[in-house]
């Protein structure tokens, strides 16, 4: 069950293959907005993106038939282990960035890049889900904050400005996800959503919160993707070309020796859910579940 939809298991009659049916209710005045998710998904064919198999529209519901992705979400997949290494984090980031490079090349912004929308299937394959916030992007189009208000922790600082969302907005979200994996913490502190963004806008990212023993490449990746100025962030393609994300630029044996115990990450996930519940009650915000 999502915030505005329900996902059910279904089966293809001819092949008997198990698929997922995402059922999205809508009112007539919202129909074009809801159909945008279908219009985005029908253009996408990538290993790290859940594949659309078909769609049905009724007067009250849109049903998206997608490949079944079974597995834990990204952060929980790490928390289920005893420990994990920087190399494993880098491998997941490579898969995320590969999908985002593909999206941006097709003029699409995801705008909801959170761990909850990334499923780890066997064998360790990341699948990007939920394109409910996705938008087609052109340089003359302003995508404002009101279309991106149902999440907070991964929102980029430019969403507070008239500039709106850009391809670099997705890069910020990836930087936040990377930071959490490498610290079990957020890079900025505030229980107030708007204050969270204002603090981030000032560039007050606290790398001292990260685990000890990170490589210089990992630190550089966090600094560049979490640059407060969107134009200072690398593109997805530039991220993928960085030495840290290239196997030739890593001493895998050395980096695998530095492991991060998952106790802190498990506690982080527990506290995150508690805080989200409190924020929903206190500020009446739609914070992603």
Description:
With 289 residues, the protein is an alpha+beta fold. Helices cover 36% and strands 16% of the residues. It has two domains: 62 residues, Phosphorylase Kinase, domain 1 (2-Layer Sandwich), CATH 3.30.200.20; 210 residues, Orthogonal Bundle (Transferase(Phosphotransferase), domain 1), CATH 1.10.510.10. The strands form four sheets. A four-stranded antiparallel sheet has the order 1-2-4-3, with helices on one face. It has a two-stranded antiparallel sheet with strand order 5-10. A two-stranded antiparallel sheet has the order 6-9. The protein is globular, with a radius of gyration of 19 Å. The C terminus is likely disordered.
Q: What CATH first level of the largest domain would be assigned?
A: Mainly Alpha
Along the chain, the helix and strand elements come as: EEHEEHEHEEEEHHHHHEH
Q: First CA to last CA: what distance?
A: 10 Å
| Unreliable residue stretches | 283-289
Q: How many DSSP-defined strands?
A: 10
From the spread of the alpha carbons, the general shape counts as globular
Mean pLDDT: 86
Secondary-structure-based class equals: alpha+beta
Largest sheet: 4 strands, antiparallel
Oligomerization state: single chain
**Number of continuous helical runs:** 9
**Full CATH superfamily name of the largest domain:** Transferase(Phosphotransferase) domain 1
Instruction: Estimate percent helicity.
Output: 25-40%
The portion of residues forming beta strands comes to 15-25%
The third-level CATH topology of the largest domain is Transferase(Phosphotransferase), domain 1
Sheet with the most strands: spatial strand order:
1-2-4-3
What is Rg? 19 Å
Total domain units: 2
Proper CATH architecture of the largest domain:
Orthogonal Bundle
Domain Protein kinase: 1-245
GO molecular function: ATP binding; protein kinase activity
Pfam families: Pkinase
InterPro entries: Kinase-like_dom_sf, Prot_kinase_dom, Tyr_kinase_AS
């Amino acid at each position: 069950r999502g915030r505005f939809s329900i996902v059910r298991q279904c089966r293809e009659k001819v092949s008997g293959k198990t698929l997922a049916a995402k059922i999205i209710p809508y009112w007539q005045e919202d129909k074009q907005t809801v159909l945008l998710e279908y219009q985005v998904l029908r253009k996408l064919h990538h290993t790290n993106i859940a594949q659309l198999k078909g769609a049905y529209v009724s007067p009250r519901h849109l049903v998206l038939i997608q490949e079944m992705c079974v597995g834990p979400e990204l952060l929980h997949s790490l928390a289920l282990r005893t420990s994990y290494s920087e190399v494993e984090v880098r491998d997941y980031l490579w898969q995320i960035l590969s999908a985002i490079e593909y999206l941006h090349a097709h003029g699409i912004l995801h705008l909801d890049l959170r761990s909850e929308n990334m499923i780890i299937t066997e064998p360790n394959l990341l699948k990007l889900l939920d394109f409910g916030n996705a938008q087609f992007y052109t340089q003359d189009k302003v995508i404002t904050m009101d279309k991106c208000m149902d999440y907070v922790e991964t929102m980029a600082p430019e969403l507070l400005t008239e500039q709106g969302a850009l391809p670099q907005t997705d890069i910020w979200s990836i930087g936040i996800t990377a930071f959490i994996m490498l610290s079990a913490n957020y890079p900025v502190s505030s229980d107030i959503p708007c204050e969270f963004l204002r603090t981030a806008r000032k560039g007050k990212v606290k790398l001292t919160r990260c685990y000890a023993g990170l490589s210089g490449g990992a630190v550089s990746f966090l600094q560049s993707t979490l640059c407060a100025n969107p134009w200072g962030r690398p593109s997805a393609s530039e991220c993928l070309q960085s030495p840290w994300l290239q196997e030739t630029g890593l001493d895998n044996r050395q980096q695998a020796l530095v492991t991060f115990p998952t106790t802190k990450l498990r506690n982080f996930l527990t506290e995150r859910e508690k805080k989200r519940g409190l924020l929903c009650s206190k500020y009446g915000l739609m914070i992603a579940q």
